[in-house]
Structure formats: structure tokens, C-alpha cells
């Protein structure tokens, strides 16, 4: 695939408006993406912006909500590797509506774009995902992760004998990893208000215009939802020397 045939997205939206109630008390005085992973000295949003810049993104629109001023103040003083614009929802628009509202501030509306949830801590080659999206001529492509089940599993035979105990095995199901590639035309398909995962995605799936990109083997991915996730992320990153 040559550059003349295909160019990678250089713009992205980060959804950072959630209240993060399960992360309290960390989110009592800051939005969820401003929570720091212990030992890194950088909030989640900072890691995301660095990753996006490393993947060729030059412009990011951050959709803010809960305690937006805290995030905006950090952005004003941070040394950022790309250009950042913030938009603030004056009323709840839902995930799809918020995505559409933020996409309206992208600098190149006639070009494809990435999007990511603001509470995702991941590293994988976004350009490969964009190539996957392009090859399938999709309107939208979502990254798919296979998380580990947080409990130990028990393996049995058909008769009911216990054969083995497996600690935190990978889930048999893929889940939406909260990272996307969208065509330029996708913006018009988003609802003004509501959830794109309930409204837009099912329609695209029926029309075979929605693709799913499995994260490469060994790629790091974690959703930061609870204090336990913060501790686990810190432990994992330390083990990887990051």
C-alpha cells in the first residue's frame, strides 16, 4: 500500500467527559483522564497524546465535560507533542452525540480520523489499524481486545471431573477496546444526541461497513475504571520498564 494510494489519519478525537465515579476519590477534583498512573508522573491523557503523536497524529480535539477546567488548565501548561483543541458539552449529548460534536472541530473534516476513549491506556500500531480499515473499505473500524477474566477458571470434562484450575485466563470473547478509525463520512452518520454503539454501529454492521481490528499479540491494553486498574497498570508498566 503506497502513500499515493492511502494516507494515514493525522487527526483524532479523545472523549474525556466522563465523571469516573468508580475511580473516586481520585476523580473528586479532576476528570478521569487526568488521573495519574502511579509511578509515571503523567495523567492518562498525557500518555494518550504522546501515543497519538508517535503514530503520526498532528491535531487532537478533546471532548470535555466533568471538571473540564482542570483538564484545560493542565493542557495550557503542558508541553504537548501536537496541537490540541478542547470542546465542552454544555448539556449531555450521549457518547455518539459527544463524538459528533467534537468531530465538528476537526481541522480536516474531509479526511479520516481516529477516536479513543479518555480512560484507555494502550500501545499498538495505529497505522496498521488504519491500513486494515482502508483495506476493508469500512466506514468505521473498532479495535478489539481480549481481556483476562479477573477470576480463576475451572476446567472440567464432560462427566464433571475437575481437570485443571486456570488463573485469570483470557476471555473467549473479544470486546470493544475503545479505539476507532472513522472515515470522513462517518461524522454525518452519528446521532446529534444518543449512543453511537446502540444506534450507528448496529446499522453499519448489518450493512457490512463496520470492521473489527484485533489488537496484535502482545499489545498492551487496559481500561482504567477502578483504583485496582490503576494499581495493576502501574505494576504492568513497571514490569515492562516504562
Brief summary of the model shown:
With 242 residues, the chain is α/β, with parallel strands linked by helices. It contains 7 helices and 11 strands.
In words, what does this structure look like?
- InterPro entries: Mannose-1P_guanyltransferase, NTP_transferase_dom, Nucleotide-diphossugar_trans.
- This is Guanyltransferase.
- With 242 residues, the protein is an alpha/beta fold.
- Helices cover 29% and strands 24% of the residues.
- It has 7 helices and 11 strands.
- A 7-stranded mixed sheet has the order 3-2-1-4-9-6-10, with helices on both faces. Strands 5-11 form a two-stranded antiparallel sheet. A two-stranded antiparallel sheet has the order 7-8.
- α2 (68-77) links the parallel β2 (59-64) and β3.
- It is globular, with a radius of gyration of 19 Å.
Amino acid at each position: 500500500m503506497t502513500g499515493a494510494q492511502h494516507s494515514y489519519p493525522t487527526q483524532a478525537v479523545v472523549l474525556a467527559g466522563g465523571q469516573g465515579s468508580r475511580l473516586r476519590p481520585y476523580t473528586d477534583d479532576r476528570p478521569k483522564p487526568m488521573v495519574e498512573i502511579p509511578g509515571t508522573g503523567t495523567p492518562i491523557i498525557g500518555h494518550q497524546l504522546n501515543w497519538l503523536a508517535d503514530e503520526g497524529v498532528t491535531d487532537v480535539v478533546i471532548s470535555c465535560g466533568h471538571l473540564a477546567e482542570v483538564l484545560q488548565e493542565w493542557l495550557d501548561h503542558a508541553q504537548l507533542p501536537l496541537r490540541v483543541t478542547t470542546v465542552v458539552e454544555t448539556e449531555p449529548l450521549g457518547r455518539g452525540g459527544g463524538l459528533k460534536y467534537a468531530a465538528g472541530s476537526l481541522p480536516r473534516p474531509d479526511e479520516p480520523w481516529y477516536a479513543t476513549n479518555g480512560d484507555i491506556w494502550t500501545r499498538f500500531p495505529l497505522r496498521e489499524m488504519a491500513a486494515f480499515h482502508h483495506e476493508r473499505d469500512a466506514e468505521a473500524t473498532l479495535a478489539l481486545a481480549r481481556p483476562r477474566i479477573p477470576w480463576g477458571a475451572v476446567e472440567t470434562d464432560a462427566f464433571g471431573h475437575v481437570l485443571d484450575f486456570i488463573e485469570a485466563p483470557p476471555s473467549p470473547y473479544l470486546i470493544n477496546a475503545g479505539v476507532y478509525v472513522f472515515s470522513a463520512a462517518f461524522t454525518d452518520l452519528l446521532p446529534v444526541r444518543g449512543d453511537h454503539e446502540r444506534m450507528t454501529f448496529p446499522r453499519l454492521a448489518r450493512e457490512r461497513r463496520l470492521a473489527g481490528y484485533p489488537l496484535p499479540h502482545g499489545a498492551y491494553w487496559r481500561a482504567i475504571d477502578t483504583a485496582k486498574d490503576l494499581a495493576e497498570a502501574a505494576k504492568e508498566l513497571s514490569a515492562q520498564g516504562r
